[in-house]
Amino acid sequence: xxxxxxxxxxxxxxxxxxxxxxxxxxxxxxxxxxxxxxxxxxxxxxxxxxxxxxxxxxxxxxxxxxxxxxxxxxxxxxxxxxxxxxxxxxxxxxxxxxxxxxxxxxxxxxxxxxxxxxxxxxxxxxxxxxxxxxxxxxxxxxxxxxxxxxxxxxxxxxxxxxxxxxxxxxxxxxxxxxxxxxxxxxxxxxxxxxxxxxxxxxxxxxxxxxxxxxxxxxxxxxxxxxxxxxxxxxxxxxxxxxxxxxxxxxxxxxxxxxxxxxxxxxxxxxxxxxxxxxxxxxxxxxxxxxxxxxxxxxxxxxxxxxxxxxxxxxxxxxxxxxxxxxxxxxxxxxxxxxxxxxxxxxxxxxxxxxxxxxxxxxxxxxxxxxxxxxxxxxxxxxxxxxxxxxxxxxxxxxxxxxxxxxxxxxxxxxxxxxxxxxxxxxxxxxxxxxxxxxxxxxxxxxxxxxxxxxxxxxxxxxxxxxxxxxxxxxxxxxxxxxxxxxxxxxxxxxxxxxxxxxxxxxxxxx
Length: 510
What we know:
CATH topology of the largest domain: Hypothetical Protein Pfu-838710-001
Radius of gyration: 26 Å
Oligomer: single chain
CATH architecture of the largest domain: Beta Barrel
Mean pLDDT: 88
CATH class of the largest domain: Mainly Beta
Low-confidence stretches: none
Distance between the termini: 49 Å
Shape: globular
Number of strands: 11
CATH superfamily of the largest domain: Hypothetical Protein Pfu-838710-001
């Protein structure tokens, strides 16, 4: 099992890292520098990629190595994946060696063997340093500078990998936190293989939704918490680069969803978590989420409300001028949000959270370790469902504040249902989650309508001669949208109430 922390740095900062005092203090023996060339193999249909595998031949000038890696998982820069590696006499795949892995059956297929060929390559200079920590943990620091190439397409490599050789992964995060004080760095989410496949497939990057969770049905609450938080971090980081590029508002939405899911996770597990340990992290997550909220609100204002209005009032000059001003305001908020995500504080937050997740000390509390995740999940889902019912008891009498509390309760129940879905039969989980998603969408629309009215004064404030008709159109749009959504909310609420709680065992006739 390969465990490594990937850090992305500018080329000049990568060179500074080699001379860093902390690195020199940890270094054992002399470092080495060599040119590394790798060729990755797959079929024209990318059969290995679809199976979550990466097969490569690598040469460092002295020897050839054949390596098979699983996709594994990555969160907070930490990559965990299975790896098999063998020395080779030359540059040719040895299928006999692959027969010793868990993927032996796949590689015995003659059709697959015949179709395998080079799809992309990497070439980089690697400086390797062996590091020793005070507790006996060992790691290898690799400083890589070069490129990954597929055909005429290429992407630069400038990164540091800290691979754990023995001991605790917590040491990797502690070192990265120290380095982040002295050089700008970002956590690396994509492996070299993933970047190579992105070039080979020539598919444009797209916003990424949360991946389904895998939980151990026989596991404990502490392990489930760690798995859920790592999933949230992975979801966030998968959309980080696209958000910083600013090409699609959906990237910001997905980053916000990842933060909301993470906050929901902390809330769900608060009865079993040591609050003094995690409270500072949760405070920072709240602050970062709020910092991105304004940009997301302006995205909704511009891309949803104003453009829909303009489609119906295309010849309204005052509305067009108002929209141009709002687009400028939205860009300013987007730049501010991008500054937050690009900041050193943002990277340090996820490194610190990764360090806590790697720390076994807080998991030694018997109250945490002894709690089976199945019973914990059922009890928690029951409480969240009861809270939602209480919030919607007088549904048609709720004001905007009441509907906001209802929306939060629905969101927490939905996230909890999605987090623990794998522990229960899919046929019972799916309709329940779908009913919650439908209700949440309606409540989100009501919230967006209320947000329009909150942002309207700011949007009008900078106009030289604000046209009163514009304010009237926005207010009318908000009122009409609210009226339609209220009718839809009643239907969505009734549909959810008819769903059977999937966490309760079905009744049997005795």
